[in-house]
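Researcher: I'm preparing a figure for a lab meeting and need a structural model of a single chain. I don't have an experimental structure, so a prediction will have to do for now. The sequence is pasted below. Please return the structure as tokens so I can convert it later.
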Amino acid sequence: MTVGVEEEFLLVDSVSGGTAARASAVLGRLRPADAATGAGFHRELLATQVESATGVCTELDELRRQLTEGRLALAAAARAEGLRLVASGTAVLPCPDPPAAEGSRFTRITDVYAAVVRGYQCCGCHVHVGVPDRETAVAVLNHLAPWLPTLLALSANSPFHQGRDTDYASWRMVEQTRFPGSGITPFFRSAADYDRRIERLVECGALIDENMTFWLARLSPTYPTVEVRAADVGARVDDAVLQAALTRALVDHALAELAEGREAPRLNEQLCAAAVWSAARYGLDGQGVDLRKEHPVPASELVAELFAVVRPFLEQNGDLAAVQAALANLLAEGNGASRQRAAASGGLRAVVDALAEHTSPTPLLSAKGAS
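Model: Understood. Here is the structure written out token by token.
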């Protein structure tokens, strides 16, 4: 199964540590050769944000290489502008609301969503997994739904927002729930059902066009993939690789379930909202919601259940050893939110410094060798 990853980043001033609306200048410094490995670079919603996207990959080593080189290229362009590249779900230090990125679509989004989108400096990690066709992809979305909050809990990397500790693990997700139709993807009977419901949301004014949804998983409007958008952007490349491996294995599991004729469970919508909230609030350090059994359980148990479900497919893909090691490290050190709070013992500026250091990785010899 093919996989690709999009990562969103913040640009921060090297002196103040606050975000800087310089996306156009940073992207303008990138050369065509910087994307030769398959990575692409794009604007995001606000002028303080940039995005790096890998090409289509089949092996985790190749994905890691492209993620690493994409981050290094963006970080170098940011440094040339007196800025730093930071992988955090939200802005750590206080800053004024930045302008929207250049482009008529970004302007329209700002006009429609008004105060909800002003200052929405939120960065996620989006994983694309190739699927055979749209009908299959919609059925896969239904099977992915119970696991989306656990992917969020693993990735949570936004405890600070505008200079304060929110007491949440992922404040990004709280910000995202202010948009209409956010949260766990609804159950769809078919691709036609999926398309009709998006068209209805556009007709009702909740979405500006058919290419926009706020669900945590969707059909990509651009590529023949399922796109999972539950995760905060990870401070480290390893965080993105782990999300990609787990997501691809969950898609493999969904396809196996479909091959056996097993339909996805119909989930309680209110419990879906509760599960997303719990993952955002506590991350890995508290209670989660088991959406299949409809009762509360420790988040650590949900991680163990997810791993048990995907283990055969990780082994099939050759990813088992890498994911076991990455999960062990994450559970030992804590997710990004825990690491940010640990760094905050030196003040919030120390958090920004630590994030910038982890965002710009050292090129990996193992990844280079895999190419």
